[in-house]
């Protein structure tokens, strides 16, 4: 006997499997219409490659995989594509989804891929490509694209086939394994070949399927496959739980079984891979258990993917009016669907239509008495009562600290809760809320980073401006110093050269000022243009008066701006940092400097002050205009301009004060002179 | 057509797992202990049980009406009944009706509903009621009856009608005086001159006993049986009772001094006296106010056991279950922080730093 381990917790709900095991597998009647949702699998929805009106045959690809993480979809009947629209799909939200609708022509003609005689002659990579072409996704209920799973990140040394089927009512895999054991074994061998012949190949089956165990053991005789019987308990069939039972290993939280070198596949998927490889059949049908007290002919049926249940179930004896509930899947983890028009998907392993007595509606929930029954049965060894407490409080921090995302949503906790609390519903809602909060957090983080970088940039620019201003002041001081200390011509020339340098720096500044002005002009012009375009592009019904008045404003602004900042030829033709200009302006400046130096020497302090006051007043008026413009435009430079204006005003008042001082001094001197006389 | 939906799972165990059934099992398990009390101490406790139960249900109905909730739905879960029965079992048999009434008021309305009702009370409601009574009415709460075999020859225990009279009768305690005496724990506490052996020989409550003390031993056995039944029925797990009983057994062994006059009592004595068994199987197993994980429950039970021994030995009160339980109720959330079980796929249990609880 091979050693097996036990999972923590688990429950034993009534199995209810005999109802669907009375007969062998039957074919469901051919549907007249199929609805093929573009998203029947984990990953990106497939992209349709047919159009409305196309005639298709069974097995023809109607939607391509979208990128690497997707699966193909094939027509499951022959007929005509009549629609590509939103239809009810079997999604827990109940929302409709995009689907390809095919109206059958009753002929059921099919196309397929080329069968491969001996798959061992083909490279595994090519077989994986074949699996992708056949649109195979995990048929156990998860719908993970199989071709991706067959390319694991690390080498696989244990291949586990999940034949446990622990949920009550579902017998699809049981039926497959007891009636087609040879195909299951061959399919598993194909998988093993693709994975490079793992050391261990195990099939785990619960001991409530003795006939399947017997059949598989006989079929596996002589192969490398070992059939292991495990005790019946829900949820032994969960991937993580089955790995724990068969190998004693635990899949690390957040990681995949492939990290442990283990791969788990469903026996139905194995047979689908076998059919794709050896018969060239793509995935167009699956075995589904259709069971419940409201169905007369309960049993396992081979159903075409896309068959709507509104068509199929009445054919099996459903009384639509008496339908109380319809669950896709089992009673523990299945989705209750509101609309009978939902289609059978690749992942629909069971359709359960119970009567009200069979699966009664849940009773109203009472308060949690913290009895701990939920923690006793949790296979993931969580504390569901604490998770419930924190879920009610929306305490995301504590939820994650108590490992909410390790919950496999098996439903064992809700099953045993004495207070009838719908625990799993709370966890699903909390998981969604946490994911949403994380998304928002990432977005707000990005916005914050953008804001920080912008602030840094503004600071840096302000500092650069400060540095330039300091340089200008320095140059001005040197100029003054140079003008006072002038004695010889040579000195004057040197001073003039210094002033020229300062002036070219000023010109560079003023050229940057000019650049600023040009930028402003450009922006005003752009605004006018864009408004004009907008007005032209607006729809006839909409009132354009506000736009027109905006346009008028913008034009007026532009005009005002141009009046104040006339574009001179000099500025228009100016090119930055041109040395010949500097040379010319240097000699001219030397002349000017000589003359000004003579004049400056003769000027008294008060006259100098008066001169500087004059120039200050001019500069202040210019600065005020610029500030006004900036206010109207609300540009970034507003703060800087306002600061500049303040400084100018301060200088002006200083100079004013000094001047009045000087004037009063002069007056006093004059008085003294007068008195002396 | 649109049909009803529900969230998975769609099946429920129901039946024996429902909350009210669990409470009924607890009530059933108190019956052996109650029978022993009635046999040895008369009908007083039985009358108290009936009186407290009625009051509790009435009070809970009144509160639910005030809160605007469907009254019957909330009464049906039987939690008020369990609180009332436990309180009635904890107080002396002939406690006046108004004393027990005040106790129920504090237990149901203040300790339970003011915190939000079932499932939200941080303290064990019956113990809150008991502590309020013990501190407010020390005289009434220390008038414990004498076991029937030890009564003076002429007197017998009051019968049912007399019990009702004593409880609902006048405020004068004379009727009760004739039948009260010190409990074994009282005797041990007050003793500071006799060796344990001498004490045991001198006091009839010990000398005439079967295994430990007259009357009280049967009550303890009754509650022990009830507790084992509840563990068998999976109403609660073994962790909390075993933790408490283990602490109560081990500590007297550590402090054993050969039975001197200052002895704190033997393990067996502590197990069989006072409310040890009632506390271990009925009080600390209250799931709402206890710890959450199994390891947490073990620690919780051990903490109660240690505190019971400490208070009994060096505190002012002869018995200390109520105080010990309430002190550990304070500690239960902290215990929960440090005893999270290791989740599947993780290497070790998650640690939570105090102060980092929630944002």
**Overall number of strands of chain A:** 17
> Which class do the helix and strand fractions of chain A yield?
alpha/beta
Rg of chain A (C-alpha, Å) = 42 Å
CATH-defined architecture of the largest domain in chain A = 3-Layer(aba) Sandwich
Could you report the average pLDDT of chain A, rounded to the nearest whole number? 86
Considering residues with a beta carbon less than 8 A from a beta carbon on another chain, report the largest interface and each chain's count: A-B, 75 and 47 residues
Mean pLDDT score of chain B: 86
> What percentage of residues of chain A falls in helices of 4 or more residues?
40-55%
- Count the domains of chain A: 4
Low-confidence stretches of chain B: none
| Percent helix of chain B | 55-70%
CATH class of the largest domain in chain A: Alpha Beta
| Termini gap of chain A | 136 Å
Count of extended strands of chain B = 0
Q: Strand-and-helix sequence of chain B, N→C?
A: HHHHHHHHHHHHHHHHHH
Beta-strand content estimate of chain B? under 5%
Oligomer, anyone?
A: heterodimer
Sketch the major β-sheet of chain A.
6 strands, mixed
**CATH H-tier superfamily of the largest domain in chain A:** NADH-ubiquinone oxidoreductase 51kDa subunit
According to CATH, what is the topology of the largest domain in chain A? Rossmann fold
